[in-house]
Amino acid sequence: MIAGFEYHPEYLTREEQENLLTEIREMIKSNHLFQPSMPKTDKPFSVAMTSFGSLGWVSDKAGGYRYQSFHPVTKRPWLPIPDKLLSIWSDLTGYTEPPECCLLNYYQNEKAKMGLHRDQDEQDFNAPVLSVSLGDSALFRLGGLKRQGPTTSTKLNSGDIVILGGEARNAYHGIDRILYGSSQLLKNGGRINLTLRRVNKA
Ligand SMILES: O=C(O)CCC(=O)C(=O)O
Ligand SMILES: [Fe+2]
Q1: Is the CB of residue 140 below 6 angstroms from any atom belonging to ligand 1?
Q2: In which residues is substrate bound (predicted)?
């Protein structure tokens, strides 16, 4: 496996997962989920998204993939990243600067997945990417620095944390599928992934 990939299974207790989810549910009442679309084709993503933090990740035909300081629908600033996530970031990454973006991916139905990609819309590739899984389990595929080449698959369960740092920061990765019904955490099922990133150079 590529250097810099860290897997922390069952990092969050069930109670911590529930508390985080309660906080997020409250936040998305105003900081709504929205459906981004592909830059060239305008095809909607199968995953619904929103962000927290000073910058949020958005995508649409008009502007392509980018970070911006406000919600694309409400035009209001994103709500701040929950403290619990900020402390997970400093405990696990040891990176001195806090994350600027927490992207929330909501995999709601059977069609939801995320194709193999690299996270490359940021300026700072020295900072790791940290992601928290909540709800139904997902099959996470991790490759190397080239799209072709060997990949490994890891089942991410609710409460697990993944870090892509070092060489793995620029590795191809994606979500092949969600194992619906594998967790009872989300009352309507599905999976939430929270990804913390630095965007600008510290
Ligand atoms: O859902 C996941 O675990 C991965 C999400 C991801 O790769 C991304 O948002 O860039
Ligand atoms: Fe990614």
Answers
A1: yes
A2: 57, 65-67, 121, 147
